[in-house]
Amino acid sequence: MTKVSDPIKINKTELKNRLTMAPTVKFDYAGEDGKVTEKHVEHYRERAEGGLGLICVEATAVTPGGRFAKNHLGLWEDAQAEGHRAITDACHKNDVAVIIQLNHTGITANPNCGPAMGPSAVPTRSPEIRAKEMSTDEISEMQDHFVAAALRAKSAGYDGVQLHGCHGYLINQFISEKTNLRRDAYGGSTENRARFGADIIQRVRQECGEDFLISVRTAGIEPDVATAIAVAEEYVKAGCDYLQVSTGIEWEDPTVTDKGEHYNKFCSLGVRFHDHFRGRVPVSCVNSIMDPAQVRYLIENELTDTVDLGRAVLADPAFPEAVLSDKPFVKCFNCPNCQYGPGMPHKCPAEMRRMSGK
Ligand SMILES: Cc1cc2nc3c(=O)[nH]c(=O)nc-3n(C[C@H](O)[C@H](O)[C@H](O)COP(=O)(O)O)c2cc1C
Q1: pLDDT higher than 80, residue 346
Q2: Which of 34, 54, 67, 191 could pair with 97 in a Cys bridge, judged by C-beta atoms 3.0 to 4.6 Å apart?
Q3: What residues line ligand 1, using a CB cutoff of 6 Å?
Q4: Ligand 1, pocket-test mutation among 19, 25, 266, 289, most atoms within 8 A of CB
Q5: Mean local confidence (pLDDT), 132-149
Q6: Distance 81 CA to ligand 1 centre (A)
């Protein structure tokens, strides 16, 4: 039986256990220069000390136009790379592997940061405005930005990168038939729709080397699980080492349902991927995994290779110790405060309870 404490090797990177931190943006930490701040370093150091096997640093923009908001971490220029060294050092000192998620918002661009652009001229978040359809030259320039950011990540000591291929951002927009209406080499067949991401993977592999870990956080459903798996097969062919599975844009698959108290329908996507890629490519699942017993169930029943933890480790960095050694922990309150938007009141009640020692 596989145990949560069992190590796993992904490409050449050894994870000391099966617990991984999901990328989670800290909206109020970065300044407009997109550089790492001391708050970031402390945040990741604390979580590295908590006993995770791998940390994936939050969504990081590959161009200024691809940011969620003006205050957002970036790797679009060399000067931004240096600050990441303190994060990678803090992780490695604690024997934690570390990768960074690279992203562009594409059609969902924040107008304060840049124009909406994507595979096709479809409506943006302001339905009266349509995105600009990217030309093939613009596609290739965008891929260059992802590759350059990966090289900067490597120079800063990251073990690898995670391409943000889910949650409706640019790579996901190329996969989805809702946002990709192209009829050229980047649209139409599944293979063509996966090409934007697959080309980036191939080029990152060429530029960053065989040992560099390449993960894709891919849409587990787009619009159904079988198609999403076919896309992921293209990523694997291109050189992807690790599939961390979350949600996409379209959801048209009645076979996806919650699995009682053990895991929900979002997490079940990763379980389906694991079933398909078992023994070939490691897979991680995610979503609302807040109890140590859930983590053990998923790993010990070999339903996934690793478990991605978002809010559980935001609420309490020592959550891994609760899973591995039954230590007490402060559980996420599942409140809306930490969700997504810049300008939200970032007061995590679990974190405040932990700080106050109650
Ligand atoms: C505050 C916050 C920030 C997030 N930022 C990102 C991000 O940068 N990239 C990403 O792929 N997902 C992001 N997510 C989604 C999480 O990685 C994760 O998939 C989601 O929270 C569900 O997992 P959980 O229930 O363990 O938190 C974020 C979620 C939260 C709550």
Answers
A1: no
A2: 54
A3: 22-25, 58-59, 101, 164, 167, 217, 246, 286-289, 309-312, 338-340
A4: 25
A5: 98
A6: 23
As to burial, measured by CB atoms within 10 angstroms (0-12 exposed, 13-18 middle, 19+ buried), residue 117 is buried
Tell whether the torsion through CA atoms of 298, 243, 110 and 108 is positive or negative: negative
The alpha carbon of 24 and the centre of ligand 1 are apart by a number of angstroms equal to: 5
User: What homologous superfamily does CATH list for 8-356?
Assistant: Aldolase class I (3.20.20.70)
| Marked catalytic residue, from 29, 158, 169, 242 | 169
- 225-238 and 265-277 are packed helices; what angle lies between their axes, rounded to 10 degrees? 50
pLDDT of residue 13: 98
Helix (H) or strand (E) holding 101: strand 97-103
| Rounded CA separation 92/13 (Å) | 11
Please say whether the beta carbons of 15 and 7 come within 8 A.
yes
Q: Whose CA is nearest to atom 26 of ligand 1?
A: 310
Q: Would you kindly state where each structural domain of the chain is located, as residue ranges?
A: 8-356
Model confidence pLDDT, tens digit, residues 80-121 = 999 999 999 999 999 999 999 999 999 999 999 999 999 999
CA distance linking residue 25 with residue 288, whole number of Å: 17
The number of residues in the chain equals: 358
Find the distance separating the first CA and the last CA of the chain, reported in whole Å: 37
Q: Determine which residue's CA is closest to atom 25 belonging to ligand 1.
A: 288
Q: Which residue's alpha carbon is at the smallest distance from atom 22 of ligand 1?
A: 287
Closest CA to 55 of 301, 346, 308: 308
31 CA to centre of own chain: 21
Helix or strand run (H / E) with residue 117: strand 117-118
Active site residue 158: no
